[in-house]
Amino acid sequence: MASARTDNQHRSSRTPALGLRWLLLAGLSILLMIVDQRQQHLDAVRKAISAAVYPLRVLVDAPVSSWHWLQNTTADRNDLLLENSRLTAERLLTHARLQRYAALEAENARLRAMLEATPRMTDRVRVAEIMSVSSNPYRHSIVIDKGERDDVYDGQALIDSGGVVGQVIETGLLSSQALLISDPDHALPVEVNRTGLRTIAFGTGEYDRLDLQYLPNNADIEVGDLLVTSGLGGAFPAGYPVATVVKVERIPQEPFAQVSAKPTAALNQVREIMLIWSSATPPSEAEAEETEDVEDDG
Fold first, then answer.
1. Whole-number Å distance between alpha carbons of 156 and 178
2. How far is it, in rounded angstroms, from Cα 267 to Cα 180?
3. What is the pLDDT of residues 197-229, one digit of tens each?
4. How many CB atoms lie within 10 A of CB 146?
């Protein structure tokens, strides 16, 4: 017991007091801060410690960094998918618009051709659009978007920028049915523009051919002659182009020559047509009322 007490007293006499150690460490710390601030002696030590601790920092930060990277990668992929979908839709829409613009350009060209032909006409005309075409291969008929409300009447002539297309055969309130000149049941009085020779052009069921069936072998008609409406029968005004003669075959044993002509109108391509009200056509009720009003005002 006495020996243990003696050892403790000897140890305490050799070990500095706790307060004294704290003062020594504080003084050393202050001295190191002053030396480092003035002469940067500890800069190399800090760099060495930072390099040694860096792997530990990376290891600690790895889960958080991996989570942020995964979030960013997923968000970027979703953004790319959305952007790709948007660009694909825009591309399809642009292609559709380009196709529509091409159709509008073709329609504009046809309407311009009609407008260029209109000043040469003394008759009243109005543009109509074809709504449907007959699916019967032996029946060349169309439906247009004008009817009795637009003063359309049975037998009215239809033309395009090239020439005569056909005539109205049945009039409805808002639409009408028309028969093309190529229909096998259609016959059109024409005359040769060069000589004035009158004949009948019959439809053949082919869009690019009309037949002139009753011309004698000695008739003055040649390939390239232009056939125009003669005005006989009252359905078609005189002077409108109908077809161009493409074949004249005279057979001595036969009483009539075989003559074929190609229509000047694009019968199987036409989209818009013009309705003709000739000067001989009686005025409609609305026009008659307007005329009466003008006369009363005068």
1. 9
2. 7
3. 999 999 999 999 999 988 998 889 999 999 999
4. 23
Nearest-angstrom CA–CA distance, 4 and 10: 10
Contacts (Cβ under 8 Å, ≥6 apart) of 199: 189, 190, 191, 192, 212, 214, 215, 219
Q: Are 229 and 245 in contact (CB under 8 A)?
A: no
pLDDT less than 70: residues of the chain: 1-17, 35-47, 50, 53-54, 57, 75, 92-93, 95-107, 110-123, 279-298
Q: How far apart are CA 251 and CA 257, in angstroms?
A: 6
> Which residues, listed in sequence order, are joined to residue 178 by a DSSP beta bridge?
142, 168
pLDDT computed for residue 31 by the predictor: 75
Give the chain's radius of gyration (CA, Å).
50
Note the pLDDT of residue 242. Answer: 93
Is 260 in contact with 247 (CB distance < 8 Å)? yes
Q: Of 159, 162, 130, which is closest to residue 146 (Cα–Cα)?
A: 130
User: With contact defined as beta carbons under 8 Å apart, do 209 and 243 qualify?
Assistant: no
Helix, strand, coil % (nearest 5) of the chain? 45, 25, 35
